[in-house]
Amino acid sequence: MNDPLTHRVDVTPGATALIDADRDERLTVADLDAGVERTAGRLATLGVRPGDHLGVLLPTGRTAVEVVHAAIRLGAVTVPLGPRLTPADLAERLDRAGATALICDATTEADAVDAAAAVDEATVPVVSVDDPASGATALSARTPEAVVPHDWGLDSTLFVPFTSGTTGRPKGVRLTAGNVLASAVASAIRLGLDRAETWHVTLPCHHVGGLTPLVRMPLYGMTVVVRESFETDAVAADFEAYDVTATSLVPTTLGRLLDATEGSLGPSMRAVLLGGAPATGDLLDRCRDRDVPVFPTYGMTETASQIATATPAEARAYPGTVGRPLFWTDLSVRSEDGDERPPGEVGELVVSGPTVAPGYLDDDRSAFGPNGLHTGDVGYRDEDGRVWVVGRTDDLIVTGGENVAPAEVTEVILTHPDVADAAVVGLPDDEWGERVAALVVPRDGVDLSTAAVESYCRERLADYEIPRTIRFGDAVPRTDSGTVRRDAVRDRLK
């Protein structure tokens, strides 16, 4: 695989490739290609070569897009990093990834320099795309070299994104060029593809949900709209102003958009890929009533994004399902002994196929078995093959010998009219081993009591499923991709 942008510039050089919504700036494919060529040439003068690991600490925007494609053109492996990480966390990831350079901008330079200095037994040069203020090297000061686009093998590592780390140490995932291409094909088959596709990226580009559209843009020939951060009114305005046809959202951001707008999120919107956390029945009902074309999806960093995705018709007819596995993806439900469970029976979801990464950094294959990747997610498939995700193997609550799926309890709490958000985890209990505990966020202006939540749950849940500990907060701790940070919730409840 060559840099897909070199192919796209030969086919449709005048088409709009990128819109920077923060600056209302439009770039044609030729404009973007020229920027990528300059960036790649400047990185080459710093010694960035095929196989090098390039740390990227940038907010979502035009510069990040150019750097990602410049790395592909050079044959360097992109290690996307979250701008909200502490220098200590950044240093740990740089060290584990074996980063040979770190790209930053004015907003992240100070943390980048501190992180690079803290990497054990390594010198990681820090390069800023802006005028340096904290000791980084200025990329713009370099005179670009001529660059020959790298020829990628399908089994070559293209990206090393890190997992969210909601329950433990984040893992660096070795996504190959083949993983990313297979995911792009399978996603297009399930979602369809508009000839004038305009995909709005609201997720950070250090997550696969925000990163993969940047690569799919030249493959599909679509336009990508980028915005540095999610601001409800600004994103809603983008949908109208740029005739957005598709976007990826998490339930929290979709809920905010529905609260702030009327109708179906813009006349051109045809696909809202909804993932990161389970979609509640209430949210899906609101989408149905307002004709929002929502595709509930289940995916992982380890699978370059989607594993299974429901169509809007499936989401309406079978609330809670994430649909069927994508093309090429095999998903089975397994017992602890590895035996396949029949339809309707709960077990661990195990995935195999060309989108599944070959492993983690340091050749860690602890999650991989003879049947594929053990996702750590618990769920089942119904008689028609639809997939239902009910929780995590490491988050299943065992109280008095009974198994409780936190997702099912959370779903009930979220149907309470005075509840805006909630998360359910298990806490240690001397008598029962574990107790069900809930962190609840009331709607604005509502005085919600523990007794009211408990009474509501008692009418809808088995006795052992009712939360014994209920506390209230302003927000549920979540990752940038919308996943609940269970350890943080557990610590707060303790």
Topology (elements, then pairings):
Blueprint: H1 4-11, E1 16-20, E2 25-28, H2 29-45, E3 53-56, H3 62-74, E4 77-80, H4 87-97, E5 101-104, H5 109-118, E6 126-128, E7 137-138, E8 157-159, E9 175-176, H6 177-191, E10 198-201, H7 208-220, E11 223-226, H8 232-241, E12 246-249, H9 251-260, E13 271-274, H10 281-289, E14 294-300, E15 305-309, H11 312-317, E16 324-325, E17 330-334, E18 347-352, E19 368-369, E20 372-381, E21 387-392, E22 397-399, E23 402-404, H12 406-414, E24 419-429, E25 433-442, H13 450-458, E26 469-472, H14 486-493
Describe the structure.
The chain has 494 residues and is α/β, with parallel strands linked by helices. Helix content is 30%, strand content 24%. It contains 14 helices and 26 strands. It has helices spanning 4-11, 29-45, 62-74, 87-97, 109-118, 177-191, 208-220, 232-241, 251-260, 281-289, 312-317, 406-414, 450-458, 486-493; strands at 16-20, 25-28, 53-56, 77-80, 101-104, 126-128, 137-138, 157-159, 175-176, 198-201, 223-226, 246-249, 271-274, 294-300, 305-309, 324-325, 330-334, 347-352, 368-369, 372-381, 387-392, 397-399, 402-404, 419-429, 433-442, 469-472. A nine-stranded mixed beta sheet has the order 2-1-11-10-12-13-14-15-16, with helices on both faces. Helix 9 links the parallel strand 12 (246-249) and strand 13. Helix 2 crosses helix 3, helix 4 (87-97) crosses helix 5 (109-118) and helix 8 (232-241) crosses helix 9. The longest helix has 17 residues, at 29-45. It is globular, with a radius of gyration of 23 Å. The model has no long low-confidence stretch (mean pLDDT 93).
